[in-house]
Amino acid sequence: MHIIIIGNGIAGITAARHIRKLSDHRITVISGETDHFYSRTALMYIYMGHMRYEDTKPYEDWFWEKNRIELLRAYVEKVETATKKLTFDDGKEMAYDKLIIACGSKPNKFGWPGQELDGVQGLYSFQDLEGMEYYSEDLQRAVIVGGGLIGLEMAEMFHSRHIPVTMLVRETSFWNRVMPAEESAMINRHMREHGIDLRLETELKEIWGEKGGRAKMVLTNKGEKIACQFVGLTVGVSPNIEFLRFGDIELGRGVLVDEYLKTNVPDVYAIGDCAELRAPKPGRRPIEAVWYTGRMMGETVAHTICGKPTKYDPGIWFNSAKFLDIEYQVYGTVLASPPENHLSVYWEHPDGRNSIRIVYERDGGHVIGFNLMGVRYRHEVCEKWLREKNHVEEVLQNLGLANFDPEFYKEYDEEVVKIYNRQTGKDLQLKRKRGLAGVLQFLKG
Amino acid sequence: MLQKTGLGLFLLALLIFTLMLGMDSYVLTPESLAVDNGFHRKEILAQAEKAGMMGKEYSSTFGFCAGFMQVLKDAQASLNGQPVPEGMGEWDFKIGDWKKKEYASATLLKSGAGSVSQHPVLFFFLTFGLAILGGLLYILPKFQTVPGIKNDRIYHRPLTRGLKVGVRGFFLGAVFLSVLVYGFFYQNGDLFWPLVTAVMAAVIVGLVLFYQKQKELHGDRSASPKVTGWLGVFAGLYLIGFYVLLYWLPQHVAPWVTMVSPISEALSGQPASRWFLYGLLYTFIVLVMGVRMIAKYRHNRYQVLRTFSVMFFQACIAFLLPEILVRLNQPYYDFKNIWPLNYSFFFDWNLDNLLASGGLGIFMLVWGIVLTVVGVPVITYFFGKRWYCSWVCGCGGLAETMGDPFRQLSDKSLKAWRFERWTIHGVLAFAVVMTAMVLYTYFSGNAKVLFLDSYSIRSWYGFFVGSAFAGIVGTGFYPLMGNRMWCRFGCPLAAYLGLVQRFKSRFRITVNGGQCISCGNCSTYCEMGIDVRHYAQRGQDVLRSSCVGCGVCAAVCPRGVLRLENAGSDVGSRAEELKVIHISEGEVKLLD
Ligand SMILES: Cc1cc2nc3c(=O)[nH]c(=O)nc-3n(C[C@H](O)[C@H](O)[C@H](O)COP(=O)(O)OP(=O)(O)OC[C@H]3O[C@@H](n4cnc5c(N)ncnc54)[C@H](O)[C@@H]3O)c2cc1C
Ligand code: SF4
Ligand code: SF4
């Protein structure tokens, strides 16, 4: 059987690796972007000079041949599901028995005047990175549009080269559609502390260019004009599925799939950023464009294709990111504007660079989510608490189990307990400090 | 601005330090002739007079040494040609070859008469003083920045960018060959050990390449930059040059030794030797670069404490304490240097010296043996090898301070790992065999063990492993191949600690569930060349014999995925492949 995977990102590659582990099928992975799988999340580190492109490849180049995973550098232009055939941009064709679409996303553009000028781009692909590198020469100022994670990464990239950055953010505070107010305010402060010119409640209206076509200035909705030679458009991503438009695969915003990640056409599957679930789990979105879900989908589809039909279940939500120097982790549900029955215990360090938030249900008292800034918590422990719907008081008393900060770091778990006591008038004590031995016992029990 | 001034001062100090090797002059006088044997003294003075050397000023060590060696040779020929007088030991009358070397170096140090000898303190301030000042001016402003991991542009700087694979291979090959050729002369023309080493090297290369041919077909994820960092090459050559002078041509570093002599006299009451110079330089580098390390990782308490620890052990235990012991007429002893890293511990002269030094000497002997036999395994069982390699050890101390800007240059390929396992365990075996033979000779008085000569193996070990590997390659290669070349490929103690860590220890690096985004920061900054990401991205705990527990992988991880931990249970099962992947539990049990 010949399995073709379109896309060599985390989703496609995970699928390929697991199919190889489970079977002897012929596997071909196609991508138009790079010859080998690299970590998209590390693009910024190449620009910042922390790493080279080679260092972002999770596997050495011999890995693929050794594991009999064929790689092909080409763009797929057409998928003919009736004859089970792909057509590439150079006109060549290739037949498949099963097809996995893992073609990822592309940056959004909302039709702003001037968005096609030189020096106006998003950040998604390796080619985008090369573009940033190219336009960085003699760059006096970069304007970044959109208050999301990739926008902040772009700001950090320019900042590392001492290129002044202005960020235009539509919201009243950075990423406050996702982050509760305190954490969002912390990010605002931290960006400004680094000297990033953060402009809230500001939107892009127009980009003006030079004669030669290079961007030279942006105009905002408030009438401000900002001279700049680069405009980063980071207002989200959407599935990169243009090439599927005129086929029989059913599309919504992404490629529509059922719980087995199957499309409407037999033997065609979709995973990763480009897959849109017809029936996502309660509380989850149909498209979750993050690394972790791509990896889980890749693994799930491999099982299904290799004869062990498996439903996609993303488990309990988790994510992480880094805002300049502040690490962020979330487990479970932490809403920016919580409903009335979500209460939270929130502790923040006087320095304003670390915080811990634990969200719990008002009536039942079970924990719902953990939001950490500048503090590391253990995935397995938080997940177990969330899955077993443990009571917040039990969690608080054992909070040390979750602490994952390096040795000798100050432990703040006691402060969190104190705040809870103050809020509720109780007198809980922290019973467990950080330490692996206790954790292993807890996870086994 | 402050930083630029600092850099300028540092470079100036380096320049003076280098040039001063030619700035002293030398005059042989009866007072400066460091020979106490009366016969020898008279004869040498006569020969020097005849050669017109007495009172003549030489402007370089080269001229002086050439002239004086000739004088010694003539004196030797003259004395050795005469019959030994009644009732005198042969070698009290004749001049042996080793005596000749001793006379030459001691006399050179006493014959200095130029500006360095006249103003050692001034030169000390112009070199050490300026360099420290410059270094601190460069480093201290870093405390002003927002704390956090900053490795910006490290791969764009000509000093820290690394070498293309070809250039790197060239340096490695050239150094290896030169060391072998020089070793042939060092062993007085005996080809045996240089040849054995060459054959071993060929076997290892052959094994690694053959195995690779079978499995990994081609194309490494090489650690090769597009353009070689030539400043790094220059720095590497400078360091290599320094070690060559220090180990094998010590007469030419006389001005440096002269410069630090007042300090040595203040500390131990003895004039400085080259080893004192080296120790002093080493300590200052560890201290100043330690401040840099603390500035860089000041948000990370593990790093800060660990850096204080290596600074303390280097300054107090490795450097000051032995000097003070000497002042108190006790044996020179570095309490934290453990066999087999301290390979001369079981040499006859050391054992004799310790045994002859009363209670303290015996204590040192017992301490050294107990550390090796009990201390290493027990402490490593509890904390992993990091307790030594990145908290105590001097080599580790230098690697973690001066070496920090170069940690990304370690090779992460599987091929490098294969080489590592052969060479480091090879050196451990070599150290054990060598020590066993030396002890056999010590107790039996018999130098021949089978057909091998224990003196020749021990001198080859000192030359090849002790000097060439630990010094020249170990430190000289920081800017060429990363800061832990010695610790990773050569240190027999690291091999021993590593075996304990791998098979009997509570230490591991745990991985935080499914949070890894495969970005590769951890692997890039692992100085031991461990592909940490390989484990992290499958949720598998890292259990590797080479991990020195520096904690930098955990520090640079942008997602908080890694943690260095100790706990007894589950070590093995958590390190199994593909443990956690977050397909919801219950639904699929992974890959049975
Ligand atoms: C800068 C940046 C930082 C990020 N950081 C994080 C993070 O910290 N955490 C996190 O969870 N997520 C992060 N993400 C999101 C994450 O990278 C994506 O969710 C993930 O890479 C998606 O993987 P994928 O395999 O679905 O698709 P992709 O990685 O996009 O791979 C798809 C591949 O298919 C190729 N392709 C598309 N169409 C065709 C075609 N027709 N023919 C041939 N090839 C085609 C594309 O060129 C691409 O190489 C980040 C994204 C970016 C851009
Ligand atoms: S694995 Fe981590 S702790 Fe171990 S040596 Fe490498 S960077 Fe240091
Ligand atoms: S640095 Fe952290 S996130 Fe990146 S590959 Fe290593 S463990 Fe994974």
How does this structure look, described?
The complex is a heterodimer of chains A (445) and B (592). Chain A is α/β, with parallel strands linked by helices and 445 residues long. Chain A has helices spanning 10-22, 43-48, 62-66, 126-136, 149-160, 181-193, 291-305, 379-387, 392-397, 413-424, 436-444; strands at 2-6, 26-31, 69-73, 76-80, 85-88, 93-95, 98-101, 105-107, 120-121, 142-145, 165-168, 197-199, 204-209, 215-220, 225-227, 230-233, 237-239, 255-257, 268-270, 275-277, 318-323, 326-332, 342-348, 355-361, 367-373. Chain A has 3 domains: 2-106 and 238-305, FAD/NAD(P)-binding domain; 120-235, FAD/NAD(P)-binding domain (3-Layer(bba) Sandwich); 318-444, 2-Layer Sandwich (Enolase-like, domain 1). In chain A, 25% of the residues lie in helices and 25% in strands. In chain A, the strands form 7 sheets. In chain A, strands 3-2-1-7-19 form a 5-stranded parallel beta sheet. Chain A has a 5-stranded parallel beta sheet with strand order 9-16-10-11-12. In chain A, strand 13 and strand 14 form a beta hairpin. In chain A, helix 1 (10-22) packs parallel to helix 7 (291-305). The two termini of chain A are 43 Å apart. In chain B, the strands form 3 sheets. In chain B, strands 1-2 form a two-stranded antiparallel ribbon. A two-stranded antiparallel sheet of chain B has the order 3-4. Chain B has a two-stranded antiparallel ribbon with strand order 5-6. By secondary structure, chain B is mostly helical. Mean pLDDT of chain B is 91; it is low at 217-223 and 582-592. Among the domains of chain B are: 25-113, no CATH class; 507-590, Alpha-Beta Plaits, CATH 3.30.70. The interface between A and B is large, with 67 and 66 residues. The complex binds flavin-adenine dinucleotide and iron/sulfur cluster (2 copies). One iron/sulfur cluster binds next to helix 25 of chain B.
